[in-house]
């Protein structure tokens, strides 16, 4: 018997070299939350944020959707978790929007790393991967 399930899906795309867009979906037995963040690559700042709480367990949860716009202006170079919690979390926000936003940022980091690695020579790539991931998992 299944009692609970949860899935988080992150997709990163870029229509131009100056911005990246991250789409995130948080889906579990009680919630369906979607968020889209647009990031300016050079400053590494959120320049647009939108989202929708499509399904929530309580009617007052929908109020937290308005806080998603508070993500606009967050610089992703430092104190990311704290800034996101202040914008969409804590007692006036939603822990699930916070979690989804943090997963979106993790996906963005992966995408940024992938773009950088694709432009490198094989020996540069190998050195960077070893320095970045050395000691972080079985393979490295």
What does this structure look like?
The protein is α+β, with helices and mostly antiparallel strands and 140 residues long. The chain has one domain (6-133). 32% of the residues lie in helices and 29% in strands. The chain has helices spanning 80-88, 95-118, 122-133, and strands at 6-16, 19-28, 32-40, 45-55. Strands 1-2-3-4 form a 4-stranded antiparallel β-sheet, covered by helices on one side. α1 packs antiparallel against α2. The mean pLDDT is 93.
Low-confidence stretches: none
Order of helices and strands: EEEEHHH
Q: Report the sheet-strand fraction.
A: 25-35%
Structural class: alpha+beta
The number of domains:
1
Q: Outline, from the CA principal axes? A: globular
From the N-terminal CA to the C-terminal CA, the straight-line distance is 38 Å
Q: Mean of residue pLDDT?
A: 93
Count all strands and give the number: 4
Integer-rounded radius of gyration? 17 Å
Quick take:
With 140 residues, the chain is of the alpha+beta class. It has 3 helices and 4 strands. Strand 1 and strand 2 (19-28) form a beta hairpin.
Attribute tags:
alpha+beta; 4-stranded antiparallel β-sheet; 4 strands; globular; 32% helix; 140 residues
Write the layout of secondary structure elements.
Elements (H helix, E strand, L loop, with lengths): L5 E11 L2 E10 L3 E9 L4 E11 L24 H9 L6 H24 L3 H12 L7
Antiparallel strand pairs: 1-2, 2-3, 3-4
Helix pairs in contact: 1-2
């Amino acid at each position: 018997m299944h009692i609970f399930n949860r899935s988080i899906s992150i997709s990163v795309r870029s229509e131009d070299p100056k911005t990246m867009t991250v789409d995130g979906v948080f889906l579990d037995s009680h919630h369906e939350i979607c968020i889209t963040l647009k990031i300016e690559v050079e400053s590494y700042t959120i320049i647009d944020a939108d989202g929708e709480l499509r399904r929530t367990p309580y009617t007052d949860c929908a109020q937290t959707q308005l806080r998603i716009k508070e993500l606009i202006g967050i610089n992703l170079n430092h104190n990311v978790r704290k800034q996101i919690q202040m914008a969409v979390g804590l007692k006036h926000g939603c822990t699930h929007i916070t979690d989804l936003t943090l997963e979106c940022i993790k996906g963005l980091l992966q995408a940024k790393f992938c773009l950088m690695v694709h432009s490198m020579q094989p020996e540069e790539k190998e050195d960077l991967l070893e320095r970045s991931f050395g000691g972080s998992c079985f393979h490295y």
